[in-house]
């Protein structure tokens, strides 16, 4: 039995792993399994795609139809975002919402209702889903399409795979005039300026900032803010991939707090072009250029802590989190701050209008109680944690952040989904 983990390499469990190529094969596995979890490409960080028995869509990766005129794509759930971009970009189309890696399956993108650097403008991935087919635990396949049974849509988009196996999806792509973006970078001196610039740039389609979590108190919240738009020039060619891979786990001490502080200082001091034309791969998926970068955190793995807080409290909440990190001597290198727009429609979708911050911490025995202290701040300001990154939040933290949880749970109970589809996360959170 393979030992399987999400992208954070924590936790990992022995798994009876099933793969399928056809709907018939999927159906017989779904019908026979007393309890199962669905898996895409395991790019969720924690335990949302883990259980002792798993059905993985990796081999279920086909394109049924792509209309080059309307940008409508029909494909199976195992197809990766990168696979889609590899053929649609040359026809002038792009996915409206992409996460920070293109190694995510369409099924995983819907199940987590992923957001990109443009959530403040375009919302989540599910906004661009036209229809999907879902296999229920009794083998029945139901089709959802826009204006149909809204509850099914609200429960499935962001529902972390707990309503059924997403089989195939029709998605609306968006037109682009080039595979390149004009990127602008601004360096700020502290949190107030960071928030001001992020607010001033809210009209720019793609906006993200890297925040220095090791900055000394008077520079707390200093950041490098990047904004970008696709450029209007078809003369640029479709870019080629550049990639190398981390061959094996690095020793845990490589990402010790002193190293991270030094890396943060270097990254902040690194000169960066204020304006640059950059290809979509480098802009949207810089981490994909380093295969297995998750191994730099060592065999024990790491936890990504991502939260969102409502706009009216976001500056004070993030200040308090950054201060708490200093106090706890917790340092993160990949610290990503994003503007988030209105709440997605999914009952368990993560974004809400405000600010989201994602932080990476190497796993250690004393990390979990420290994260609970961060939870208190997030919940205290009306925020919540992202299920796709989570492996440890308590039921009370979850319930405080997700007000539709009861509706979601009842939906599962009424349709025979509960107990038949479970992840380690759904069991822990009582979903
Ligand atoms: C480097 C990196 C950057 C990231 N950046 C972002 C980001 O910017 N924004 C963001 O929102 N997320 C981001 N993520 C998280 C990632 O987009 C989500 O976790 C996504 O769900 C992973 O998809 P997957 O195919 O790997 O699915 P998995 O990780 O295998 O599964 C994730 C969830 O989807 C369910 N699922 C998967 N396939 C199906 C299916 N066919 N039917 C039903 N349920 C299914 C699983 O049960 C599980 O609950 C990032 C992850 C990484 C590693």
SS class = alpha+beta
Strand-residue proportion: 15-25%
Helical proportion, percent range = 25-40%
The low-pLDDT segments are none
**Whole-number count of domains:** 2
Strand order in the largest sheet = 17-13-15-14-20-21-19-22
Largest sheet descriptor: 8 strands, antiparallel
Separation of termini? 27 Å
Question: Count of helical segments?
Answer: 13
CATH C-level class of the largest domain: Alpha Beta
Q: The CATH topology of the largest domain, please?
A: Alpha-Beta Plaits
- Which small molecules are bound? flavin-adenine dinucleotide
Shape annotation:
globular
Radius of gyration: 21 Å
Structure notes:
The protein has 431 residues and is an alpha+beta fold. The chain folds into two domains: 64-176, Uridine Diphospho-n-acetylenolpyruvylglucosamine Reductase, domain 3, CATH 3.30.465.10; 180-395, Alpha-Beta Plaits (2-Layer Sandwich). Helix content is 27%, strand content 25%. The chain has 13 helices and 22 strands. The chain has an eight-stranded antiparallel β-sheet. It is globular, with a radius of gyration of 21 Å. The two termini are 27 Å apart. The mean pLDDT is 94. Flavin-adenine dinucleotide is lined by residues 6-7, 37-44, 48-49, 57, 77, 99-101, 104-105, 107-108, 111-112, 114-116, 160-161, 165-166, 287, 388, 423.
Descriptive labels:
Alpha-Beta Plaits; Uridine Diphospho-n-acetylenolpyruvylglucosamine Reductase, domain 3; 2 domains; 431 residues; 22 strands; binds flavin-adenine dinucleotide; single chain; 5-stranded antiparallel beta sheet; alpha+beta; 8-stranded antiparallel beta sheet; globular
């Amino acid at each position: 039995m393979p030992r399987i983990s999400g992208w954070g390499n924590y936790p990992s469990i022995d798994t009876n792993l099933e793969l399928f190529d056809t709907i018939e094969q999927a159906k017989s596995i779904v019908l026979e399994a007393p309890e199962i979890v669905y898996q895409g490409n395991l790019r969720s960080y924690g335990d949302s795609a883990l259980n002792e028995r798993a059905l993985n869509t990796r081999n279920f990766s086909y394109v049924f139809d792509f209309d080059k005129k309307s940008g409508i794509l029909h494909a199976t759930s195992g197809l990766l975002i990168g696979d889609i971009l590899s053929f649609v970009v040359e026809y002038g189309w792009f996915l409206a919402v992409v996460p920070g890696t293109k190694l995510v399956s369409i099924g995983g993108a819907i199940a987590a209702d992923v957001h990109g650097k443009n959530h403040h403008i375009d919302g989540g991935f599910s906004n661009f889903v036209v229809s999907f087919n879902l296999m229920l635990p009794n083998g029945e396949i139901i089709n959802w399409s826009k204006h149909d049974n809204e509850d099914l849509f609200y429960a499935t988009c962001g529902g972390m795979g707990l309503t059924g196996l997403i089989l195939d999806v029709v998605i609306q792509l968006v037109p682009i005039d080039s595979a390149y973006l004009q990127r602008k970078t601004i360096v700020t001196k502290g949190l107030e300026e960071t928030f001001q610039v992020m607010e001033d740039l809210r009209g720019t389609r793609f906006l993200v900032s890297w925040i220095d979590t090791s900055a000394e108190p008077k520079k707390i919240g200093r950041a490098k803010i990047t904004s970008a738009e696709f450029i209007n020039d078809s003369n640029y060619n479709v870019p080629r991939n550049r990639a190398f891979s981390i061959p094996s786990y690095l020793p845990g001490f490589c990402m010790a707090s002193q190293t991270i502080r030094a890396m943060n200082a270097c990254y902040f001091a690194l000169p960066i072009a204020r304006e640059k034309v950059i290809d979509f791969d480098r802009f949207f998926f810089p981490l994909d250029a380093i295969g297995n970068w998750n191994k730099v955190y060592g065999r024990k793995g790491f936890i990504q802590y991502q939260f969102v807080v409502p706009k009216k409290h976001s500056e004070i909440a993030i200040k308090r989190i950054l201060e708490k990190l200093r106090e706890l001597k917790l340092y993160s290198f990949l610290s990503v701050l994003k503007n988030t727009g209105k709440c997605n429609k999914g009952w368990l979708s993560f974004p809400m209008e405000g600010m989201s911050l994602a932080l990476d911490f190497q796993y250690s025995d004393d990390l979990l109680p420290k994260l609970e202290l961060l939870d208190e701040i997030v919940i205290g300001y009306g925020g919540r944690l992202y299920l796709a990154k989570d492996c440890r939040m308590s039921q009370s933290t979850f319930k405080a952040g997700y007000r539709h949880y009861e509706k979601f749970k009842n939906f599962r109970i009424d349709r025979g989904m509960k107990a038949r589809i479970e992840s380690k996360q759904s069991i822990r959170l009582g979903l």
